[in-house]
């Protein structure tokens, strides 16, 4: 065993002593941490101690949660009420078909088509549902990709490169530039002068964070733990020695993993699915009542008895007729359920996703399209969503023509694109000497770069340095330069020119004490120059001179120093990060230095403690203000949200001042608004007494320094308050809240794979305004879905009324279940889908969002469609009766086929036909077929009903086509919203009529559906009976428009009282 184990104890209990307690490594100094974890940083842990600790802590990897079994997923697909009704109807229908294929006039093949089609629908629905469910946990898999694969570990006194999963608490790890941090670790010692870590994906910070070994308070938030590095983050500068404190699921990224899993367990149905489930439950009750009524009305046909001495005796039961009326009940269930609704909804949502994709919103989960429409709150991340996540110089301060004067230039542009914007107020005759020096320092004292990637520009290196390079390009070249040296399309043309003129021979690296970086260059003037950039206050302390506009150098007096510091305070108040720029000409030690390691001056460069003395007596030339700027489109998008009644809450990991400045600039807050009660840090909110009331405030809210758990808590509280929440984010830290929100929106460009997999929608352009456009599209889609749901339900009501009337009047069954199934699935499908193309209302984003509990069908709409349904039922049954009892109707001759007429009394008592004396029937023709009834005249009411049944089916199809025109607008007349506003609907009607003609005039299909071709006169009868549905609904719409105020006055008052 190595000394690491010997010195600090040998028993497992000793190792376990710190495993059961909350670890606050950031609140202990280095020595305390070494003692607590019982390790010598020079030797590391011994192999035996590692094994002991692994028994306690396990492997450094994220857990793989047990997913839902395939059997559970299958069962889940049948939890929907409508699906269960369909399943029962299909099973009963199949059993009846098996025993009696031609009962009730159906052919054998027809009897089996209906249950098989229903089973097929259920199977397809289940497969789609299982596929969606199986994709739900991919966010957890993507999270594992972020973990480091290897680590440079000290064990048994030796350095080893080991798989990161083998780390245990107490391990000593060396981190270098480019390394991915393998576990949560306490920094023990910096090897380089500085160490910076990019942890924005975990914390939401817009810049890389400098790490040190200093102790911080126990209650520090994750951003404040400067002495800790976290698993999954990346070292961008320097190297250091660290102590592993947490591994696997105990790391910060492990906690995110647990939160994602927890959020995925709490996923709720979308508002539309909830409404459809409620509708299904109501439908179940209605179907039950109507089925019971049908049986009670017809019980006399299959069950009879005689009263003997007042007691019922001699019961007679007809199993044949019992199953026949049972089939009618099954037909009733088939008629009442809009089987095509799931398919049409899926199609409409899929079309919606295509429209949204054209607007850069990529929808990953179809129901999200509809949920977007009722979004009431958008919780937006700041960095990368409201802002560009690209540092940009927005203000340049140069020295004036005399002491005590400054010049200020505003810089346009929000990206790394050098051609994005210009510098306002720039001298028309080009740069003066002072501006040239600013450009020289910005270009040469810089390790970053800009390059074009596709249609946008990206930074390599530190974002602040890249922003300075962009500034240099916007400043242009000096007048004396040879502009032909590089092509005008080169994004670093000016920087390359400066680098050629000022050749860098040494670098004075940035460190946290002097807060500056310097480079020594061989200047084109033949002298050595020191170019420096850094914190303004620190540079001013080491500056003795300033350079004026004309290049002359004068002493830095107290007034000029105070003026520069005042300017710094004003820029900092606007949340700008400021960098000062200075240079030095008198470099006596380096006068002959050319990078030679044997030169005496080289020893000074090897000692960072000498950098401050080298960077003394500087000549100050100016300063720049940088920021992560807001996107240009965001301000208008925020105003659109306000007009649409959507509240915007900004939740960011960035610091409070920066976030508040951005929120004021984009319009979340007013420029001079008092925001004390509206802007809290995540911790302040968690300690807040009445969190829900804080979240209920109208207008915008800001939460800064927010951790993942804060974001989740905010989303959870909003959802408890019945808000529909859209949450945006791009980092690992956003994933749990994205999963928990009603709509999780991830960034497509800057977003991590974890965030994308946890989301419902991905923004291809990372732009907040795209969300607002998607909300408008979601509202439009929901309105269109309401249109086709109303259309389909009104059609189904008509079918139910038709079957009920048939049973109540005692006439032969007009339409068989397979015909109703054809209408519901195929004929109704195209018009319902086409209603999804209805143009959106012009004021769609001027209305407040609908509540998620708003009824899909209001009482008035239900009444309207009950009236329409009654007419559909009366028309389909009426045309059946007309064919049997009338030779002409409204001047249309129906006697051309030679069929025999019967009285209504005979038709309603057709089951007693065998007892009628001298009842005969003439043969009739249908297409090329002739139907004869010589053997059994009573068969006229069974196989002979085929023409009347075809008329009923055709009237049903025609009425539903006309009814689809009624659904173009909820209350608008066809005179104000004519059919051609949606040409897709006219095309869909043509397709549906075409499909109906197909089954009518193709013999094989006509046999399957039990129908025959119709003559021209019979088609005129169909149109005459079907067309009035438009006139009836126009009258109902007119009444609706006249009574709108009365119908909505009471509910509005109630909602206001509720709000108060």
From TrEMBL:
SUPFAM superfamilies xrefs = Calcium ATPase, transduction domain A, Calcium ATPase, transmembrane domain M, HAD-like, Metal cation-transporting ATPase, ATP-binding domain N
The UniProt entry, under PANTHER family, shows: CALCIUM-TRANSPORTING ATPASE (PTHR42861)
Q: Which GO terms describe its cellular component?
A: membrane
Keyword Cell membrane, does the record have it? no
Q: How does it sit in the membrane?
A: Multi-pass membrane protein
Could you tell me which NCBIfam families the record lists for this protein? Answer: ATPase_P-type
Species, as recorded: Hibiscus syriacus
Q: Which reaction does it catalyse?
A: Ca(2+)(in) + ATP + H2O = Ca(2+)(out) + ADP + phosphate + H(+)
Question: What Pfam families does this protein's entry cite?
Answer: Cation_ATPase, Cation_ATPase_C, Cation_ATPase_N, E1-E2_ATPase, Hydrolase_3
What's its EC?
7.2.2.10
State the compartments where it is located.
Answer: Membrane
Instruction: Provide this UniProt record's keywords sorted from A to Z.
Output: ATP-binding, Calcium, Calcium transport, Ion transport, Magnesium, Membrane, Metal-binding, Nucleotide-binding, Translocase, Transmembrane, Transmembrane helix, Transport
Which superkingdom? Answer: Eukaryota
Which protein family is it in?
Belongs to the cation transport ATPase (P-type) (TC 3.A.3) family. Type IIA subfamily.
Stated name of the protein: P-type Ca(2+) transporter
Q: Tell whether Lipid metabolism is among the UniProt keywords.
A: no
Any one GO molecular-function label of the UniProt entry: ATP binding
Residues that span the membrane, as ranges: 81-99, 111-131, 282-303, 323-351, 788-811, 857-884, 984-1002, 1008-1031
| Cation-transporting P-type ATPase N-terminal domain: residues covered | 24-98
């Amino acid at each position: 065993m190595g000394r690491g184990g010997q010195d600090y104890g040998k028993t497992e209990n000793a190792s376990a002593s710190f495993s059961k307690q909350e670890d606050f490594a950031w609140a202990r100094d280095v020595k305390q941490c070494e003692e607590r974890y019982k390790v010598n940083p020079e030797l590391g842990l011994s192999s035996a101690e590692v094994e002991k600790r692994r028994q306690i802590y396990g492997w450094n990897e994220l857990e793989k949660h047990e997913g839902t079994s395939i059997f559970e997923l299958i069962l889940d697909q049948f939890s929907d009420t409508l699906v269960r009704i369909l399943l029962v109807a299909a099973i009963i229908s199949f059993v009846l078909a098996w025993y009696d294929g031609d009962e009730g006039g159906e052919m054998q093949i027809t009897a089996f088509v209906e249950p098989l089609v229903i089973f097929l629908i259920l199977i397809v629905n289940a497969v789609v549902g299982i596929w969606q469910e199986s994709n739900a946990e991919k966010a957890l898999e993507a999270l594992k990709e972020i973990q480091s694969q290897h680590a440079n570990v000290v064990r048994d006194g030796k350095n080893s490169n080991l798989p990161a999963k083998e780390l245990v608490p107490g391990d000593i790890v060396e981190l270098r530039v480019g390394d991915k941090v393998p576990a949560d670790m306490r920094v023990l010692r910096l090897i380089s002068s500085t160490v910076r870590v990019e942890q924005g994906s975990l914390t939401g910070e817009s810049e890389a964070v400098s790490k040190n070994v200093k102790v911080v308070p126990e209650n520090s938030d994750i951003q404040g733990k400067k002495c800790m590095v976290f698993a999954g983050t990346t070292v961008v500068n320097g190297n250091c020695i660290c102590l592993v404190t947490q591994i696997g699921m105990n790391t910060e990224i492990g906690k995110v993993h647990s939160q994602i899993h927890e959020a995925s367990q709490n996923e709720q149905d979308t508002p539309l699915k909830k409404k459809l489930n409620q509708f299904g439950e109501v439908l179940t009750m209605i179907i039950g009542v109507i089925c019971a009524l049908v049986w009670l009305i017809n019980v006399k046909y299959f069950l009879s008895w005689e009263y003997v001495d007042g007691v019922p005796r001699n019961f007679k039961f007809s199993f044949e007729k019992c199953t026949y009326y049972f089939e009618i009940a099954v037909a009733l269930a088939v008629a009442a359920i809009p089987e095509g609704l799931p398919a049409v909804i899926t199609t409409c949502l899929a079309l919606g996703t295509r429209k949204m994709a054209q607007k850069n919103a990529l929808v990953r989960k179809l129901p999200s399209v509809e949920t977007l429409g009722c979004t009431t709150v958008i919780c937006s991340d700041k960095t990368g969503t409201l802002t560009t996540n690209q540092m940009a110089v927005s203000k340049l301060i140069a020295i004036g023509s005399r002491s005590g004067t400054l010049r200020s230039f505003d810089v346009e542009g929000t990206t790394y694109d050098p051609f994005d914007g210009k510098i306002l107020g720039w001298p028309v005759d080009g740069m003066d000497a002072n501006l040239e020096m600013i450009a020289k320092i910005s270009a040469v004292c810089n390790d970053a770069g800009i390059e074009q990637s596709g249609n946008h520009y990206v930074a390599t290196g530190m974002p602040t340095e890249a922003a300075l390079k962009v500034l240099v390009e916007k400043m242009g070249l000096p007048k004396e330069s040879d502009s032909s040296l590089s092509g005008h399309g080169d994004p670093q043309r000016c920087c390359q020119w400066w680098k050629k003129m000022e050749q860098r021979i040494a670098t004075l690296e940035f460190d946290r004490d002097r807060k500056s970086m310097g480079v020594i260059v061989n200047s084109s003037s033949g002298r050595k120059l020191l170019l420096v950039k850094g914190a303004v206050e620190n540079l001013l302390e080491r500056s003795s001179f300033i350079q004026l506009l004309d290049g002359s150098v004068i002493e830095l007096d107290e007034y000029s120093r105070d003026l520069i510091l005042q300017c710094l305070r004003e820029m900092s108040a606007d949340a700008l990060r400021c960098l000062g720029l200075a240079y030095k000409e008198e470099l006596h030690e380096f006068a002959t230095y050319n990078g030679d390691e044997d030169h005496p001056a080289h020893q000074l460069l090897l000692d960072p403690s000498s950098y401050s003395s080298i960077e003394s007596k500087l000549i100050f030339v100016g300063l720049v203000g940088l920021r992560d700027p807001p996107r240009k489109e965001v301000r208008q998008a925020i105003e659109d949200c306000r007009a649409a009644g959507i509240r915007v809450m900004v939740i960011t990991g960035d610091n409070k001042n920066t976030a508040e400045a951005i929120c004021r600039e984009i319009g979340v807050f007013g420029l001079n608004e008092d925001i004390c009660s509206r802007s809290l840090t995540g911790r302040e909110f968690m300690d807040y007494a009445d969190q829900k009331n804080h979240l209920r405030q109208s207008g915008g809210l800001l939460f800064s320094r927010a951790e993942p758990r804060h974001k989740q808590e905010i989303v959870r509280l909003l959802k408890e308050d019945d808000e529909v929440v859209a949450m945006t984010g791009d980092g690992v830290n956003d994933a749990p809240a994205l999963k928990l929100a009603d709509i999780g929106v991830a960034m497509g460009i800057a977003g991590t794979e974890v965030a994308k997999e946890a989301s419902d929608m991905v923004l291809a352009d990372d732009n907040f305004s795209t969300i607002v456009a998607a909300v408008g599209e979601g509202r439009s889609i929901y309105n269109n879905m309401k249109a086709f749901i109303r259309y389909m339900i009104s059609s189904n009501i008509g079918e139910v009324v038709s079957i009920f009337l048939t049973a109540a009047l005692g006439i032969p069954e007009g339409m068989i279940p397979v015909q109703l199934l054809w209408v519901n699935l195929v004929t109704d499908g195209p018009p319902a889908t086409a209603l999804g193309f209805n143009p959106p209302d012009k004021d769609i984003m001027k209305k407040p969002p609908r509540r998620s509990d708003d009824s899909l069908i209001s009482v008035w709409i239900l009444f309207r469609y009950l009236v329409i349904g009654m007419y559909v039922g009366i028309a389909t049954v009426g045309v059946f009766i007309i064919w049997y009892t009338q030779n002409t109707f409204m001047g249309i001759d129906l006697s051309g086929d030679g069929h025999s007429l019967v009285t209504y009394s005979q038709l309603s008592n057709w089951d007693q036909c065998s007892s009628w004396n001298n009842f005969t029937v003439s043969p009739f023709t249908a297409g090329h077929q002739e139907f004869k009834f010589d053997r059994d005249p009573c068969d006229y009411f069974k196989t002979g009903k085929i023409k009347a049944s075809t008329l009923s089916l055709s009237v049903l199809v025609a009425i539903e086509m006309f009814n689809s025109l009624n659904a173009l607008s909820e209350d608008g007349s066809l005179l104000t919203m004519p059919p051609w506003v949606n040409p897709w609907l006219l095309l869909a009607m043509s397709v549906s009529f075409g499909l109906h003609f197909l089954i009518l005039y193709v013999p094989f299909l006509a046999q399957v559906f039990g129908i025959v071709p119709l003559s021209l006169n019979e088609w005129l009868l169909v149109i005459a009976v079907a067309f009035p549905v438009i006139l009836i609904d126009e009258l109902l719409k007119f009444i609706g428009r006249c009574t709108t105020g009365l119908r909505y006055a009471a509910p509005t008052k109630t909602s206001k009282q509720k709000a108060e």
